[in-house]
Every structure is written in C-alpha cells, then in structure tokens.
Amino acid sequence: MSKIPVRRPNSDNSPSHPTPRPRVRRGSRQDGSAALLVAQDYAAIGLPVIPLKPGGKRPVTAHGKDDATTDAEQIARWWSEWPMANIVFARRVV
Questions:
Q1: How far apart are the C-alpha atoms of 22 and 54, rounded to whole Å?
Q2: Planar angle of CA 55, 41, 43, nearest 5 degrees
Q3: b or e along 63-86 (b: 16 or more beta carbons within 10 Å of the residue's beta carbon)?
Q4: What is the separation, in whole angstroms, between the first and last Cα of the chain?
Q5: Domain extent listing, the chain
Q6: pLDDT tens across 12-60, in order?
Q7: Backbone Cα Rg of the chain
Q8: CA-to-CA distance for 82 and 15, rounded, in angstroms?
Q9: What is the DSSP track for 17-40?
C-alpha cells in the first residue's frame, strides 16, 4: 500500500497548494480537427455520429438523428462545414 503525501504549510506564508494550471479542454483546437478525428474514430468502431451546434445539443443537420452515419467522407464534409461542432453518436434501437 502506498502512502499519500501530506502537505505541510509553508513557512513563508505562501499557499500550501501549487498554482493551478490553466484548464485546457481536450479536443478544443481552434480548427476543429480534433473533433473530426474523434468523430471518425467513433465511426470506425461502428458508432454512427452527427454534428451538434457548437456549445449546444441540437443537431446541425436537416434530419437530426436520422442523418447519423459511419461514412468517413460524410463526416469529413460535415466537419469541414461546421469545424467547431460537438459530436454525438447515435444509438440505433433494433
């Protein structure tokens, strides 16, 4: 069993915790290429995806969940048109 280190207060009145690092969201590249790669990864394992409005939960496609696809070319077209779109994978009920 490993021991958890105990933080001791500093004698120079500085905070006992380290300075927080800036928060960087995964996949937050300004050109949206990370989102495209993640969407293509989902599609590659068989999960149909659709783009959502940036910062929202509504599909940007005309038919919403009915447009979900695993087609890599269609996914690339969507993310070239909406590079900052969120990703959702659609579940198909059989």
A1: 22
A2: 90
A3: eeeebbebeeebbeebbeebbebb
A4: 47
A5: 33-89
A6: 555 555 555 444 455 455 566 888 999 999 999 999 999 999 988 999 9
A7: 21
A8: 44
A9: SPPPPPP--TT--TTSHHHHHHHH
At which residue do the structure tokens 């409005």 appear? 53
For residue 57, which amino acid is it? Answer: K
The strand ranges marked E within the chain are 49-52, 86-89
Structure token digits, residue 12: 């120079």
Quote the CA–CA distance of 26 and 52 in Å, as a whole number.
17
Considering the entire predicted model, what is its pTM?
Answer: 0.64
How far is residue 70's CA from residue 49's CA, in Å, rounded to a whole number? 7
Give the whole-angstrom CA distance, residue 35 versus residue 53: 13
83 contacts 35 by C-beta, under 8 angstroms: yes
